[in-house]
Amino acid sequence: MNKKVGVKILSTGSFVPKKVLTNFDLEKMVETSDEWISERTGIKERRILDKNQTTSDLAYNAAIKAIDRANITVDDIDMIIVATISPDVPMPSTACYLQKKLKAYNAVAFDISAACSGFIYGVTTAKAFIESGMYKRVLLVGVEALSRIIDWTDRNTCVLFGDGAGAMIFEASDTENDIISTYLGTNGDHTEILNIPAGGANNPTSEETVKQKLHCLKMIGKEVFKISVLKMSLSVTKAQELVGLTDKDIDLYIPHQANLRIIEAVAKKAGIAREKVYINVHKYGNMSAATTIVALDEAYQEGRVKKGNLVELVAFGAGLTWGACILKINF
Ligand code: UT7
After folding, report:
1. Does ligand 1 come within 6 angstroms of the Cβ of 259?
2. What is the DSSP-derived secondary structure letter of residue 71?
3. Closest CA to 247 of 224, 217, 277, 289
4. ∠ CA 90-292-323, rounded to 5°
5. Cα of 157 to ligand 1 centre, how many Å?
6. 315 - beta bridge partners?
7. 189, 200 Cβ separation under 8 angstroms
8. CA atoms of 41 and 115, how far apart (whole Å)
9. Does 307 contact ligand 1 (Cβ within 6 A)?
10. Whether the CB of 225 sits within 6 Å of ligand 1
């Protein structure tokens, strides 16, 4: 019988653009205030990519750091997965642009679309491909250039989002397994509460869709908030129960960074101590598929997580999609 293949995590990397947009900058753009944004979301500033940068550039910068730290070459990578809802173009995938920029021509490359849960869906996808024995070394990137799909005149959304990228490299292993658990959920009944209404086959781009800014992200924030708290707290517990772990086993929780109030409500509902929750939403806002991996990379670089620690990532996003994964830090 074939020996079971485990998945080792080799490294992480992240990259955020230099340009900072503060709440005070936003006060000059829409009718809002630093006080409202800080109180309702916890966000103080976010990063915005340069005019001459695109999604795959952010992805490249995060990927290169992870590749260097993993001590491998681009030729060692046989699969590239990019999780994003703000691709370079609708077709082909951002993963193809990233493959070209990295010159990682031994890799097959594709995008996955699971919005803010994209990175956790990506971890699960990488795990499945490696465990099946089909691929050996996977580069996963969560990346967003959300500033390109935001309506900068809509105060309901433009204060919430930012740009950034994070990367992780996985390798097949006979002796180790660092992806301890993953749990995913989807419910397509609520597609309308968080979406980009136009620009696809259902509502192709026209003068009218552009005039109405239907190519931009729309959200009914209150609805998303409520379901997000329920599904993220459920995911935290489900990922633990699947492998017989409890809160005591988890050293650090890294929740999706959309809103400090959501993070606090999830922690309360799931019975998690605040000291065990990593927070960087004040610096970056909601970077969708990039949030959890940027936060994990920062926590690692800061020494907040150490070798041997168990970290639980949990997220929720458009779809609706949600999920959690428990990772062993062993690099
Ligand atoms: O990653 C997954 C996707 N996103 C999320 O998880 C985000 C989920 N939702 C949220 O974070 C929150 O619902 C928001 C931050 C979007 C909104 O907070 P809220 O406490 O749910 O506020 P609200 O929507 O009930 O709005 C309250 C008021 C409204 O005014 P009226 O109708 O009460 O007069 C809004 O028009 O605040 C107003 N408002 C603002 N005021 C100043 C909305 N946006 C702003 C703003 N500045 N930027």
Report:
1. yes
2. T
3. 277
4. 80
5. 8
6. 323
7. no
8. 19
9. no
10. yes
Average pLDDT of adjacent 10-residue blocks, the chain of 331 residues: 84 98 98 98 98 98 98 98 98 98 98 98 98 97 98 98 98 96 98 97 97 97 96 98 98 98 97 96 98 98 96 98 98 94
Verify whether residue 190 is a known catalytic residue. Answer: no
Q: Ligand 1 pocket, 19 CB below 6 A?
A: no
57 CA to centre of ligand 1 in angstroms: 31
Residue type, 155: R
Distance in angstroms (rounded) separating the CA atoms of residues 291 and 165: 8
Q: Enter the pTM of the model.
A: 0.97
Determine how many CB atoms are found less than 10 A away from the CB of residue 134: 13
Cα–Cα distance measured from residue 287 to residue 269, given in angstroms and rounded to the nearest whole number: 24
State yes or no: cis peptide before 90, omega within 30 of 0.
no
Catalytic site residue from 61, 195, 259, 286: 286
Measured distance CA(130)–CA(116) in Å, rounded: 23
| Residue nearest atom 5 of ligand 1, based on CA coordinates | 258
Catalytic: 286?
yes
